[in-house]
Amino acid sequence: MSTRLLTDEQFADGTTIDGNRLDRALDGLGRRINRVRLRDLAVRHVQTQYVAGYLPDVRAAQDSIPWMAAGNVASEVVSGVAPDDGFQNPQRVKGYYQHTDCDHYVWEFPLYFRRPVIVADVFVGLFIDSTYTNDFTYAAAPNNPTAKTALDSASDVSVVLSVDNPLRTEDRGLAAPDLARHWWRATAERFNHANESVAMVAGVDYADMSPSFPGGVLRGVTVNLRDLNVPLHRDTRARLAVVLPHWDGDLAPWGAEPWRLQYYSVVLTVLEEVEEG
Amino acid sequence: MAAITWERLTRGIKLLRQHLFTPLSAAATALSAKIAQTQMKEGWGSFRINLNVPCLGGSLFNPTEDLHGLFMVPFALPPVQEFFSIEGQSSATTPLLVLDEITIGFDQRGEPAAIHDKTEATAGLLDYDNLEKVTFTVSLREQGQEVFGSAGSDIPNREIFSAELTDLLFTDRNYRANPFLLDGIEQALNPYRTYTLCIDAVGLAQAAAEGNHALVALQVSLRIRTPLIARDTGSGSNAQNIPTKHSGGKTGATVTIQTPVANSTILADGATGAQTNIEVVDRVLLSRLKGGYTEWSDVPPTEHLQHDACYDVIAVPLFGRGVTFSPANVASLPYIGAGPLYKSLACDRRIIPLKYPFTLHHVIAVANHVARPNAAPGAYTDPKTAGGANWITRIGVGLGVGFRSDEFNYQQLALLDCTGITFANYSIDSVEEDPASVMGDKIHLLNVPLVYPAGGTRGLSYPTTFGGVAGTNTGPPIYCGKSHLGTQARSNIANAPNGTSVSPVTGGQEQFIEVRWSFGDTVNGMGHAATYPAGTIFVGYGGHWVFLIGKKHLA
């Protein structure tokens, strides 16, 4: 064995044990113990959670903000005319699954990380109750989307975490989708299967904690990407996007206003390294 | 532990065993769970105030001169309970808080364009012709807190930083500073002050035929650095719901230094050799220093670090929709019952999954009752004053189990249940823009008590008047963390403020934290025009906020 970290001095029987060598060894010991370094720590990160939420308007025919169309086309411009230079990003989210006969609406959060971080967890909850009544099931034929099986569980929501290209930051086509979840079936992603059978009656509170919740027991579907361990480099511009479908003909289960049928909790968990004071 | 010291071996000095083995023994002692934050080169952690606003639109601002308005989110950063001073005085041991950077971003749909506000028929559409609208000023302002006797104005009067972000940053095709980063702020924050993030975006407000514009999906993040601190224990901090396997305590690593007997020769090798014992310490560093909690609430078999926790704030938005809730649009809220009176309570909730353990120390609720500036006298009505004893505000924090599991249950962590009359009993501070009546009522910071057993051990928090003795009207810290079989057994927790100590109903299997806020009037109803006239601000623009304050841990 030999000393690796504390000091360069190595002592062995038969060699000199000069005071200055011992002095240097003690210096190394004292300075290292009195100022342990990042390399010496087995645990060196702390978590940070970004929490977002949205409680939609219960009335029909309202605006969709913060949800906005995924595509940038002339009909999405106030003047009705495309800009002179054309659209910089005809599609503004790279990496979501684009269904045919379907428009898409996006809720996108921009984030900036000056120091490297590790993405640990992404949670997207679409919750329902006696007021927000998405059943996440396609209608019976012929009212189901062509690409989807009648009466099947909805499988058309995307969650994407993309990172802007550091050299061409505004070109979404060059962004890197570090995380993406598509084609997941709602029935396989219920928050709690037992709660699905609990009757929900409007106006009847569910007293599971205080204050009681008027909409009923907690139920809905969730995307829970766990144990991700995805590193993001320094000066990362990241965007977390939740994409909902709007099928042509306002087909079920999303109808004409897909954002209005559930309320939302979105949580991003990252790990940030400890640092000097 | 204090830093280890050692003697200099000057020329000619006789080598004694204490010259070498005293500092080695001190190092061994330090490595037995006594490596303090001051002994760590990277001994600071960070936390963020992350504010997500679905929409900040020009409809909040008034372009009339002298009115303007401000979008405000106040918050406070009280020390964790072991450092909390009931007099609101920092001491030499109060951990520092240093504001490091702020990032601001919003959704421009990937285009160099402005976005139309919710108030427009063209809401959410791109506007390439009015790019100059995307100009705003962001600032952080400070004020003294009423709960500690700060009298006078509720207007934040000290500016910590301010930055004007012009359209030039957001409207170029080649590069847009969105998200925008402002770093190197390096401003110390006072844990006994109220801070308010202010955004003046009057440029978004409608002038002529341009329409209101908006910052959609606004994400603001304030990053604050602070020294690492010790974690909570069942005995020292009386933490509730803590795994009884370890109760937060530390088992120090055993690092054995074998000192030569007196008058023996000091050798390099052998059990008492210099090289041998230096290598003992060296090997501990090679295998890295342990501490913190695992994801499943467990601790390392032995630990080296004394300070392995960090201050944390989780900001939870509620009722944010880019509108002010008033009688005109109260029907847009869920659960309020049948019109026209709407006699049931509105409610919103957020689910926050537990990834790594978190120990809850304080809950601060921010009740927002401000709206677009309107100089007309009596334009706005405060529902608390109007409703009096009938106006209900209920804010709860709970620990939940039930995510993809057979079990489904909640354990109460904190609860505030008040009327328009008793609202003030929980008040920490109030914030207003200048002048107050122009934007309606104020924004109120409220202390939400943690659960604690009647007649049992209490925690330490703001000296609000609820619950008896000032400053102790809250419970001890509450541990929140997932578990495996070994860490499932938990210490008791109270079931309510001034409640009963019980075995946690979540059974140590918690998976998420839930925050709920309900409000309304079940006697007259929010649609009762005589009680709540047209200008009543049920929820101010931007919604309410709940800040969960506590400790997170090295992971």
Give a brief description.
Chain A is mainly beta and 277 residues long. Chain A has one helix at residues 19-34; strands at 45-54, 68-69, 102-113, 117-128, 158-163, 176-181, 219-225, 230-232, 236-247, 263-273.
Task: Describe what you observe in this structure.
The complex is a heterodimer of chains A (277) and B (555). Chain A has 277 residues and is mostly beta strands. Chain A is 6% helix and 29% strand. In chain A, strands 1, 4, 7, 8 and 10 form a 5-stranded antiparallel β-sheet that branches. Chain A is elongated. The mean pLDDT of chain A is 93. Chain B is 6% helix and 33% strand. Chain B has helices at 17-30, 274-286, 383-387; strands at residues 44-57, 71-76, 98-107, 114-116, 126-127, 136-144, 158-165, 180-188, 193-200, 213-227, 309-318, 346-353, 358-370, 391-401, 409-419, 427-431, 440-448, 452-453, 478-480, 493-494, 497-499, 501-502, 512-521, 544-553. In chain B, strands 1, 3, 4, 5, 8 and 10 form a 6-stranded antiparallel β-sheet that branches. In chain B, helix 1 (17-30) packs parallel to helix 2 (274-286). The longest helix of chain B has 14 residues, at 17-30. The interface between A and B is large, with 117 and 153 residues.
N-end to C-end Cα span of chain B? 22 Å
Rg on CA atoms of chain B, Å: 27 Å
Query: Please, what is the average pLDDT of chain B?
Result: 93
The rounded distance between the terminal residues' Cα atoms of chain A is: 35 Å
Counting helices, strands and paired strands, the structural category of chain A is: mainly beta
> How many DSSP helices of chain B?
3
Largest interface: which pair? A-B, 117 and 153 residues
Count of alpha and pi helical runs of chain A: 1
Characterize the overall form of chain A: elongated
The arrangement of helices and strands of chain B along the chain is HEEEEEEEEEEHEEEHEEEEEEEEEEE
Q: What's the total number of strands of chain A?
A: 10
How large, in whole angstroms, is the Cα Rg of chain A?
A: 27 Å
Give helix % range of chain B.
under 10%
- The fraction of residues assigned to DSSP E strands of chain B is 25-35%
Arithmetic mean pLDDT of chain A: 93
Biggest sheet architecture of chain B: 6 strands, antiparallel
Strand content of chain A: 25-35%
Largest sheet of chain A: 5 strands, antiparallel
